[in-house]
Amino acid sequence: MLKVLCRALLAGCVAIGAACQGSRSLRDPQYQWSQYTETSTKEVVALGQRLFFDPQLSGSGRTACATCHNPDFVYGDLRPVSISDNGQPGRRHAPSLLNVGFRPYLMWDGRFASLEEQAFGPFRPEGEMGIGIEGAAARISRDPNYRLQFSRVLGQPPSPEGIVAGHVIFAPKVSALPLFTDFEFRNIGIGFDGDGFHDLGRGAVTLAEQDYGAFRTPSLRNVAITGPYMHDGSLGTLDEVIAFYDAGGRPNPNLNPFLRPLGLTDQEKDGLVAFLGSLTDLEFSPAPTR
Predict the structure, then answer these.
(1) Which helix or strand (DSSP H or E) is residue 216 part of?
(2) Among 170, 199, 217, where does a domain finish?
(3) pLDDT higher than 50, residue 94
(4) pTM, whole model, 2 decimals?
(5) 229 — phi, psi (to 5°)?
């Protein structure tokens, strides 16, 4: 039972981004559900899509995965930080899920190594979904349409692993390459002040002091339409981001040595914003005005 609901949540994420199991190369073939050779990809994705948008999977019945990863905002969130099902704000910004399947590590601190592993994360009573995944599985098991769909697609009733499988298969697919990131973790000073690091970032995972305040380097692909920026959503525009880097980041004991004041001219800053805008996939580019 636990294995089945997770597989369906996994199906919810691969359509957003060429899902992976563990680390994947950009040259790897599209993820294949070999254990479901008699099930069409269309059926699996349909189940994953339903799960991704269904607020029944939350404790209150009001929060879906799409609440924080809204397709109207390129599967991201316009709010600086996510709001959990209990109404409490989180500490970090919910980034776009586009091309998520190519990332070797997930979350800003890289604590998950696969979409399957990450999909369990929000399903805790104190987590974003406000309910344990067993409780979510039990809830949708009472729905005869879900029972029929799970049986047809996964060959078993709703379960935690089936939910995860559905989400991963649905992950948004926009695989324009390159992704303009090296997937490494760096400290640029965001979140540091006189009281120290408000969020240890990668350091909370590795427990290494030199990793305090380091976060995953996000892709620049579609960056012009996936704000606000930084792990805490503290910079609202690309102009603010460029001004931050032009100043050399924010000094702190672990500041990446590559950061230093750049002395950019206004023309150079405008050119950078224009270049970053050119990395937007055509399907998300705004329609030309006449």
Answers:
(1) strand 215-216
(2) 170
(3) yes
(4) 0.79
(5) -115, 160
Q: Which residue, 142, 170, 198, sits at the end of a domain?
A: 170
Q: How far apart are CA 17 and CA 40, in angstroms?
A: 18
Q: Tell me how far apart the alpha carbons of residues 79 and 92 are, in angstroms, rounded to a whole number.
A: 10
Type of residue at 195: D
Q: Where are the alpha helices (H) located in 54-156, listed in sequence order?
A: 65-68, 115-120, 133-141, 144-154
3-state secondary structure of 193: strand
Note whether residue 220 is domain-resident.
Answer: yes
Range of the domain at 153: 2-170
Over residues 205-257, the pLDDT tens digits come to 999 999 999 999 999 988 999 999 999 999 999 999 999 999 999 999 999 99
* Number of domains composing the chain: 2
| Confidence band, pLDDT 50/70/90 cuts, at residue 2 | very low
Find the DSSP H helices in the chain: 2-17, 41-53, 65-68, 115-120, 133-141, 144-154, 160-170, 203-206, 238-246, 266-277
- Note the pLDDT of residue 25: 39
Q: How is residue 30 annotated by DSSP?
A: P
Distance CA 288, CA 86 (A): 41
CB 113 within 8 A of CB 23: yes
